[in-house]
TrEMBL record:
Entry's Gene Ontology cellular component terms: plasma membrane
MF-aspect GO terms: ATP-dependent diacylglycerol kinase activity
Record InterPro entries: ATP-NAD_kinase_N, Diacylglycerol_kinase_cat_dom, Lipid_Phosphate_FormReg, NAD/diacylglycerol_kinase_sf
DAGKc domain sequence ranges: 1-147
SUPFAM superfamilies reported in the protein's UniProt record: NAD kinase/diacylglycerol kinase-like
Name this protein carries in UniProt: Diacylglycerol kinase family enzyme
Cofactor dependence: Mg(2+)
Source species: Pseudonocardia endophytica
Amino acid sequence: MWGVRALLVVNPQATSTTAAGRDVLTKALASELKLDVLQTRYRGHAAEGTAAAVRDGVELVVALGGDGTVNEVVNGLLADQTGTTAPARPDPYATAMLAVVPGGSANVFARALQMPRDPVEATGHVLTALAERRQRMVGLGHADDRWFTFNAGMGWDADVVAAVERARAQGHEASPGRYAMTALGQYLAQLRRPPSMTVHLPGADALGGVKLAFVSNTDPWTYLSGRAVRTNPRSSFGSGLGLFALRSLGPRTIAAVLREILSSDGDPHGRHVVRHDAVPLVRITSDVPLALQLDGDHLGERTDVEFLSVPAALRVVV
């Protein structure tokens, strides 16, 4: 592996690592790679630094952080190849490879790749995979001029993400308990003023009256206190997108759905549940602006979003 040029993108605010631990991981990688290190300082820094490194000829980018760091690195990896507005299928061999060392709270992308959850073990896993030339092609989602790796949504979940981001800006921890309480508060608000979306799928009639819409690029949709939340259990990085939608936010519907998506073999269904797997494209429209999130990052409000599946978009060290 000597001579492989690599960039380590470190989020110093990562919740499951310490400064001392990050220093150990950095030294381990530097012992085997020609390594530069970028410590992110602001939102978008990881994407900017990754894009610049790719232009400079870096062959591997290692993301040490949570899913937000991974998302920014992925967008940086593909920025110069496809631009910010063209969701055309990129050439995965025309950019650097990605490796992930989980350092956040959920680490959905890393866990979907079956990476070790411990950062030290994950670093060793990456170095072994590089020595053995192990890699896989990963499909991505694209929406609102951005790439996403595991999930996206409009409405309730995006409002929760926005509220938690505001709390974090005020110095509060983004703990599972905070997410749960925020989700309850946002649910009560949505119950009083239910949104209405229309879902458009290729070759199907438009489906109106949708109150909640999740889009998955893999399974599970996310994790809550270590427990998988499964909306589309047949989704995977190479199968296209999964759609999970509800036509009612009534308490009975929500209670039943929560039981199913939190069960170990989660396979939600029911009268108000809409499920589609392996679709190439999902378009969601609304008469009023609704919150949008990609990979847990709130992007503001939109009335019309197209979610596209892009197969084999990226090479990932596994």
